[in-house]
Amino acid sequence: MYRKWSKPNIKIPIGLIITICVFPAVLIGLFYALRGVVSFMDWTAEHISAPIRGFMGMVSSVYPFSVMEILLTTAGVWLIYYMVRTVMVTVRRRGKMKIMGKRMLLPVVAALYAYCLFCWTWNCGYHATGFAIKNGFEGGGISVEDLASVTKFFADNANNLAPLMERDENGRYIGDRSSMFAASVGIYENIASEFPNLEGRVYAPKPMLYSWLMSRTGYTGIYFAPTGESNINTRTPAFLMPATVSHELAHQLGVFAEDEASFVGIAACTSSGDSIFEYSGYVSGLMYLMNALFTVDDKAWSEINYTICPEIRTDWQYNYDYWQSQKKVETGIEFIDRVLTSVTQTVSDAVDTVYDGYLKSQNQELGIKSYGACVDLLVEYYIKRIT
Predict the structure, then answer these.
(1) Cα 265 from Cα 191, distance rounded (Å)
(2) How far apart are CA 208 and CA 231, in angstroms?
């Protein structure tokens, strides 16, 4: 004789359900109501965001893989399964709209909780006092002469370091990524003595399983606040990777704005005492500075460009060729290549548009252009060292 088992009939009070559903929406609304109060955002960034991100960074550092990728992959697979299951259940039963509404409530509430967490652990930093203001940077623009001087300074240092880098048979830099990641945890020790708010523990970056996807969409790394991880695209040219790592570690230390994280990352590299990070910092900064100088003084740009050594030119050319190759798909079948290339470009443009809109919605007026907007900070900081 067999006993038939059935699911227990557990009734959850409607009030509790409403509370669970409404709670994240209330916190998100509270964040948007208070994000204009800088003093409160400063307090939030220091007493809510930093402790949570630091704790999660410590927990996730135990694992050699990206916890972010595991979570996002799991969420994506679950969402696809859940939506398919929802369609199947809805088709089979009566009261389709009611059933659909009930089932859609779960992913909507889950998304609200995720965005709520993101608001209070990361978005708050975009509305808090920035690194430049905290550390007395004057802002207000730079002179063309100072820009040219700092650009030459970066070119000279990059030229001196370039021949010391390990290179392949094609002359391209081939640094070991594993040792680079391991060394990165101490890269902020020197710069922190000058900027005390950069003191703190950082955790080694994680190589991304989805590096190929990052390359297709044009990104080199991502800091994920809910897990406290700096995730790095390991397929990109190695000579810029130390600067990318330093940029993402700057986010770990509470530098939220992209232009400030780029500046801090470069400054950390060039002051690190590690020739590999120094070279990457100087070459990365030189790319920003040369682009800016070209738009205001092409003669000064030409004079500096003439001095760039062959090793740097080789690295730059490889970087250009790599990113160009990511814009198209080559399978050998013309029709498929055209379709996949078009899809790749569409996806890349869509990602840029969404991310640009997100940054602008969080008080970052330049959007994705802010990645290259660190030139003013570089010139103001380094001109004092030159003079």
Answers:
(1) 10
(2) 6
